[in-house]
Records
---
Amino acid sequence: MSRFSLSGNLRDAAFQKGADLFGIADASCFLHREYTGMRPSEIMPEIASVIIIGVSIPRGAFGTLPRGRAEYTNTLMAGTATLRILAFSLAHQVEREGYIATIVPAEESEFGYWYADPSTLNADLSLKYAAYHAGLGSFGLNHLLIHPDHGARIRITGILTDAPLEAGTPDLEGFFHSRCSTCQKCADACPAHAISRDGTIDRHACSDYMFRELGGLRCGMCIKVCPL
């Protein structure tokens, strides 16, 4: 099967099974000088592609914030569970074509702290970076992926594979969303003061707020106020 046929089949299967977004990044994007995290080739040396699938989070989960943080957190976890099932099915579909595939941990919080290096709070590899190169959106001031249709109200996971698939292309507007420089509502709304207007973020302040102040519940305020 050609890379185009397999890519199309995977895309169709993802949407049929409930995904709201699907994209493919060429794994070589992680070799760019701008990327400083772990490369997927350190996990899978023969990797060729990173498949990104995602689901949109219902708007009602954000509308209840901040009082409804338990409901918001539960809704996020439901999205993660959905993605695990979707990714597992697609990984099997890839392997039926003679390739190998493994699933990257989905982001379990706004910045993936469950699977992060405790000293840096950076995940092993950035799914958002892969999603950007797959053409699924750009980065916001809050360092979250901004999808054209769903904004930051999404949850994503990834599949690493040696299958040479048809990759997407990055957003022509650039790495950061053009509206973020003049909006900055997320910086004003952040209760942990973790988001700076210059585009930097204090991951430890965000993590401490969620795990100490909120007892492990998710915050979500930077997403709630985002107009995109």
---
Amino acid sequence: MTYDVIISGAGPCGLMLACELRLRGVNVLVVERLAEPDMTIKAGAINIPTAEAFYRRGLLPHLTAAQEESLSMFRSTLPKNAGKVRTPPKFAGHFAALWLDSENFDHDDPAFHGRGPAGEIGFVVQQQVEAILGAWANDLGVEIRRGVTLTGFDADDAGVTVHAGDQVFRGDWLVGCDGGRSTVRKLAGFDFPGTDPEITGHQAIVTMAGHEGLSRGWNTTPTGIYAFGPQPGRILTVEFDGPPVDRDAEITVEELENSIRAVSGVDVRITGIQSATRFTDNARQANTYRIGRVLVAGDAAHVHSPFGGQGLNLSVGDAMNLGWKLAATINGWAPETLLDTYTTERHPLGEWVLDWTRAQIALMRLDGHARALRKVIKEVIATKDATTYFAKKISGVWHHYDLPGDHPLIGRSASDLALADGTALADHLHDGRGLLLDLGDLPSHAVVPADRLNVVSTKCADEPDLPGLLVRPDGVVAWAGGDGLDGALRTWFGA
């Protein structure tokens, strides 16, 4: 059995990558050790770059429906006089369990402008993301084999032979999207430096008695951190007593009760567990995301604590960045260094996320110095400037790559421009190709490889002084006027 790409792992990263590859005609196989999708409670929201990625592939209606389902459940837990539920980024979230008051959010900050309908999406949980991607993968004809565990592989200059028990598959490329304890990463020999864990965290959906003494939202206590809600029965605890002895052991009622009582002081009794997981603040990152014909993405490339909900979003971003570049390499038109830019562009974002989560752990610690600093940060966070700053970081609107060119739009996510022909910019990215948007003043000598990107000539009232945009398949602006269009076309779309 021979494929262009074999992907290990059918989580959000593996599914998104598989779909991106299939859009460009790549023959891909996904192997997943679990026989069914994992319904364990995980990430509870997506950020704006993730919403934009789905929007640009025509999946916005599915996100909208998923968010409404989540909001309906959330509303059911609120008092009748609670008022309208705000959606991210206006519903700002938390930093180190310090709640960001949405009333302090600056709605006029330009970083949030131009996001289009994707800017109104946020309350979509990981299980919903995986369901949407699973259905899309099925529509695209992605071959997914569940209950198949990658046990080893042999890589050479021409490709990779993958072993899964007594099954053998051959691929030109292998991508490990198989989680924080990635088999692909370990067998390939990726260095994975970082910092060791110091906490044990639990997150669970339970039924319990005696919970009336628990306070809603995030809470800091002398013995740790806990969160209660927003969905019924959801509880999260953080204890600074070192990592768990066995992360894979079954989570018992007694273990959860003891953890809740230890950090909250409330004598709860758990009567049932719907879903439960442990986590730590182990923070590590591969020093490169590619060794020869083997690549890593998502949690296989970087692990960290879940605070701020960055893991799911970072994984989808990895897949969006890698997918079109790997497809271009397989299809034979990629510039020589294109695939190398996957590491150079994504590694700094992964490094930032590790530091972002480490900083939160430092503020959560129980010692006097950390608690004194926490009081200072709590006062700072209560200001409009700080709330907006943290909201920009959490929402991902600040993300950008260091690309050639002087225009401030270059390297950033393209605004969802409303075009004179009645379309929006995102409408022209559904097929996974790039976009050359001619707004009336493109250089006449530009040599455009039209088989690799869509060319649209129209007007745009939003940007009257902009001659045009060159947008990569992942939605990143590569050129925005002036000299350099030919160079940008060669850099990102080949000769």
